[in-house]
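Input record (one chain):
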Amino acid sequence: MTHRWQHYRQAQAALPTHNLAWPFFGAGLDNVGVEGRPVIEPLPACAPDEILVRVDALGLCASDAKMVRLGLDYPLFFARDLAANPAQLGHEAALTVVQVGAQWRDCYAVGQRLGIQPDVYSAGQRVIFGVNLPGAMSQYVTLDPRVLAGDGGSYVFPAPAEMGYAEVALLEPWACVDVAYSPAARRLAPKPGGLLWIAGQPGDTARYTMRRVLDSRLVVLSDAPDAFAAWMYSQPVPVIERDGASAAAVAQEFGSGAGIDDIILLDPPHAATVAGAVAALADHGTLNLVRAQPLDARVAVDMHKLHYQHLALLGCPGPDIAAAYGAAANRSELRAGGVTWIMGAGGAMGRMHLQRALQMRERPRAILATNRGTARLDALRHDYAAQAAAAGVELITVSPVAEPARLAREMERLTGGRGCDDIVVVVPDPAAVDAAAPHLAHDGLLVVFAGVPAGAPIHLPLDWTARYGAQFTGASGSTVADQRRVIEKMQQDALATAQIVAAVGGMNALQAGLHAVMAHHYPGKVVIYPHLVDLPLLSLPQLKDALPAVYARLGPGETWSNAAEQALFEAYWERA
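The corresponding structure, as predicted from the sequence alone:
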């Protein structure tokens, strides 16, 4: 280990007086930096209630590309005047503490390595590192009490010393993938202190039961059977009756503009009724559909709402309404020994879902990986065929555009007409979800892992939740706990997070890296090392000619490794 590398790792070198950063002035790549270059700024001053951190690695995300493309139209900028008050993007980061304000000297130390959860809440407001707060497209950045002592506590956390910088930077996207299969991604029981609406049908005399004690702040009953209404009045919760009320009317009268936390529909006759209930759900809301018979149609659900609001769409046939709740009744993980279909498997996030499935201890027996373009499928086979074979998983790659007949044949061969146990949609296209739904097994799990603008409906057989135990979920974002869980999996050799790295570059290559993400140039992630200033953007195979000493330290199958990362720093410093 060279002295320079050791000094860098331990933050022993003297701090510079200046800092390189990429400000973002508005829509378009030309508005990232100035004339295609980062700007030179004074080193940020560290106030007593702040810490100054060095950005060691930065993962470029499709969300970064979306912000660059949309500029002020990106909703989380909150109409900010970017020309006058530029943002600093970058939310997937590996950080090292280099200065500690007096307020934090008992909590942080120079040389301490940190990961960060960018989705920060402070004083009830959402402020995001890399959007509203200055992010990691900079060599150094200060973190203030909003990050260090926000509503959720600290949004930074220690990173184990043995982890590489790229591994730490990519914890956040990996956590977003991993939490999609966690029961914690959605609320699987009525919310304590929440608003609960229970809607039956006029004249219904069914003998429903509910074997749980309710602790909602308010229960609104609409057309509930008399016996069930009498039981509800015996509960230690306030009850109001509003016969004939719609979901929208209940949300408007009692939801304070936030929607309804929990809805129970007792044998609704029409899909439109269920669709109205889903539309009225609050963020992290639950719908319990109690029905033993098919609905008259598929239910229209806003794909944006399902993806971003962490809805729990549950169901049971009755008579015990409570049977729909809880992790035991609602599968979140891919089915062991089942058939998984990953739509959009060729991109970075699709590959992460595929790799996670292959590294599961109890994994699917077959994975159908589809992508519109065949070039990415070729790369997918090249990169994952050996890993799949070693894991005992049959990996089938098909383009639904180029080979629709083959896709149908493979689907029939793999499932015998039963349908896929799990379908993961990583394509931001409602039509893709509609095309996938008929191929889901009756008791299958469908995960929507792609965001689209609000108002784009998908059509789901939600009655399957009640009749067969099917699951329809969406997932976005993560928490510090989710990132810690990824670290635990890495330490158990259950997830090789650096395997997703496809290209690396230095600070001056950041704009080129963003362009590559926007153009879908690489199948995996682009990682920028801000302190390797002039390192050009290089795919891992290009390292063979450009930096052979680094290439020689890659892992099996030309995969990124901590040894390659160290060799990259040392090779760059030798040339500098």
